[in-house]
Amino acid sequence: MASPTVENYLKALYTLADESGEINLSDLSVHLGVSKPTVNSMVKTLKQEGWVKYEKYKPLKLTEKGRKAAALVIRKHRLTEMFLVEKMGFGWEEVHEIAEQIEHIKAPAFFDRMDKLMDFPKVDPHGSPIPDEEGNIIDRNYKKLSECQAGDEVRLVALNHSSKEFLEFLDSREISLKLELEVKSIESFDNSMLVSYHKHPSETLSQKVCERLLVEKA
After folding, report:
1. SS3 state at 101
2. Largest Cα–Cα distance of the chain, in whole Å?
3. Tell me: the pLDDT tens digits for 10-22?
4. What's the whole-model pTM score?
């Protein structure tokens, strides 16, 4: 049974993996805020347990065993976030730190009950897909708002960045999931967008914000 520290490593590896599934040790060190020697030591443990494939001086990859273990930690985290919002009334900007603690509970029945009470949600409060009981994740290839054109009418369906600061920024602009927006114009100088949506006929969003908003055609 994986310790909380191991689960955090697995989750970080899953998050950092590129399209080929490879992860750079330096990126892992920065992401977790720990030294490279500490990362090297843990990677050796993960390799011994069959969770990663690793050769010295090369990127590492999660094995299928490691990928599933990571996805199941993510499942617990995202189910918890959704439960805190849907059943307990927390704001979407409040739930991450609480879920970080609860995700390490070793009681599958607890999370299965949570899932059932919410009628088996497919996404968390930020629109990220919730892995199923086997660790399978259905990733939807949503479009970034920054990729849209003037005149496009879209619906906000997910975020690709969910820090507390960013969520509080969205709250201050009354931007939430399922919101329908129209792109009015795009500033050629900095690619900021003038958009309109409910109660906001003219709101300017920076390119940085637009790259973090995932949308589908309304």
Report:
1. helix
2. 57
3. 999 999 998 788 9
4. 0.92
